[in-house]
Amino acid sequence: MNKDVHPKVFVLGDSRTGTTSIHRFLLGAGYRSIHYYFKESGVIENSESDQLINVHLTDNWARLKKFIDDSGFDAFSDYPTRTYYKELMDAYPDAYFILSTRKNVEVWQRSMTEFMTKFGIALDILNLSNIYVELNERIRVLAGERGVRFCEINIDDDNSKNSLILSEFLELKEVLQLGRENASISYDVRLWSARSSMFNIGEGDVITYVEKCCFPHKGMLSEYGWVFLVNDSSDYMRYLFGQLRWTEAQLQFAMGTLKSRHASLGQRGCQYLKFVIPEKSAIYPEYLPKVFGGMQVDKERPAQLLMDAGVPGFSYLADIFHDAKSLGFLYFKGDSHTNWLGAFVAYLHIAERLNSSLADGWQKAPIGFSQLMPKIAGYEGDIAAQLPEDQARIIKTTWGPITPEGVFEYLVSYELPNEARKAQQVAAPKEYIDSLGERPLLVFENGESNLPRAVIFRDSTSDFIIPLLAEHFSRSVFVWHKGQVYDDIIEREEPDVVIHIMAERFFSEYKVFPPFSKVLPSNLDSDIDRERVRTETRSNEKGVVRKLISLMRSIRAKS
C-alpha cells in the first residue's frame, strides 16, 4: 500500500467502542494512524455536555483541518475525530469513514462506567447515552446523504467477521487480524503494569499482529515499561518462539563455518573463540508484552543448538545471564543491549574462557568487580527512541510519574578508573579505516609486552566490554564486523587469539555466512604491507593524543 496516495481514514466511533483496536488494525495495514489526539492537533477539548454542539467549533475545526493536512498522519480515530464528522465528510469526500459501535447501548454504558470508574472519573451516564445514540444516528444519516465510503462494525461481533469486514472495506490485499485492545478488564490502576493495555488479539498469530501494530518502528513497549526489539531484519522474535528454525542443512553449514575457522586458525597457532550475547527478550521474556505470556521460548533456536552441539570455541551466554539475573538487571530497559552490569558478566565469562584456552604465561586474572568505579548514569536507549507515536505517549503518561526527565532510566554504571588502565588507544592503520568505512575501529596497546596479541570482531553488544577486555592483550584490534571474520586483517595482525562477539539476533544469519571474508584492498603485497602497517602504527603511537576511553564506554550515557 502506498501511504502517500491512498485516501484518509476517519474512525468515528465513541469511546469504549474499539477505536484503539481499529487504530492498531490500521497501523498493521500500513497507515500512519493516530488515536485520541487533542494535544497533538491543538483542538480544545470540550466537556461531555458540549460534544454535540462544540462551543469552539469554528476555531477547533481550523486547527483540526490543518493538523490532518500537515501532520503526515492518514488515519484518525477517537476524539476529536468523532465530534467533527460533518466537517470531515464535507472536506474529505474520498475518505473512508468507519463507525464503531457496541452490541447495544446497555453494553456501552457498562463499559464506560467500568472503565472510567477505575480512573476516578464520574459520569452522567444517562446524558452521555443520549448523546451516544443521537450522534451515531446522525453519522449514519449524513454518510448516506453524502454518499461517502462508510462502514459500521459492532466491536462485540466475532473478531474474524470484523477483520474481514474492515479488510474488504479498506480494499486490503489480505485479511488482517483485528485485535481486542483496551478492554476494561485489562486495567487495574493499583498496578503500574495494568494501567495500560498494549496488545491483545485472543486467538491468532501474536508475532505478526504485534509486528504490524509497531511497523515500521523497531521499538515495542510492554505493559511493564520495558522496550523490546521488533521488526528487525533478522526476524529474531520468530526464532525466539520457534516460528522460524534452522533446517538440518543450515545447522550443519553454520557448524561447518565455525569448525573451519577454529581449525584454520589453530593451524596458524591462533585460538578462535566465538561468543554470542543473548537477546534481552530471551533473558527477560517475563517483561515482554503480556500478549506473549502464553508462548514458550524455543530451546532449538540457532545459538542454543550450536551451544548444545559443543562446537569448539563456541559459547552462547544464555545460561550465564539467566544465572546472573539475581545480581540485578543486566539489560537496559529502553535499549537492546546489556547495561554495564550485564557487560561485566559477559566480560568475566569471556576472560575465563580466554585464560583456559591460552598457553601458560599468557593468562591474566580478570578485573574484579571491586576494581570498578560505580556512578549514577542516565540512559535513553536505542529502541526507546524508535517506539511508535502512540506507545511513546504511554511512556510519558502512564509511566511518566516514574520516568526521569530527558532519559529513559537511571541506573548504576561500572567503569574501570583511568588510573587503573594500562591499555591505551592508539592510531588505527589508515588501510583499516579506509576499508571499513564508517564502521568503528579501535586499536589498543598495553605496556605489558608478555601478553598475547588479539583481533576482536565485535558489534555494539561489546561497547562496555572493550575497555575491560583490552587489558588482557599487548595489542588488541577491535573490528566492527557485521557478522564477518576478515582473514586479511588477521593475516596482517598475526594475533595469538581471535575473539568474535556478536548479538544473538544476527547469529541466525550464520546459515549462510562463510568462514572468512576479506575487507582490505587486494592489490597490495601482503608481506610488505603487513610490515608497513606495523611500522606506521608503532611510529604513530608516540605522536597520538590518547583519546578519552569514556567515549567508548558510553556514547549515549549521561552522568
From TrEMBL:
Source lineage: Bacteria, Pseudomonadati, Pseudomonadota, Alphaproteobacteria, Rhodobacterales
Location of the AlgX/AlgJ SGNH hydrolase-like domain: 247-391
Entry annotated with the keyword Nucleotidyltransferase: no
Full protein name: AlgX/AlgJ SGNH hydrolase-like domain-containing protein
Subcellular location field: Periplasm
Main subcellular location of this protein, as a coarse class: periplasm
Keyword annotations of the record: Alginate biosynthesis, Periplasm, Signal, Transferase
Pathway given in the UniProt record: Glycan biosynthesis; alginate biosynthesis
Annotated InterPro entries: ALGX/ALGJ_SGNH-like, P-loop_NTPase, Sulfotransfer_4
A matching Pfam family: ALGX
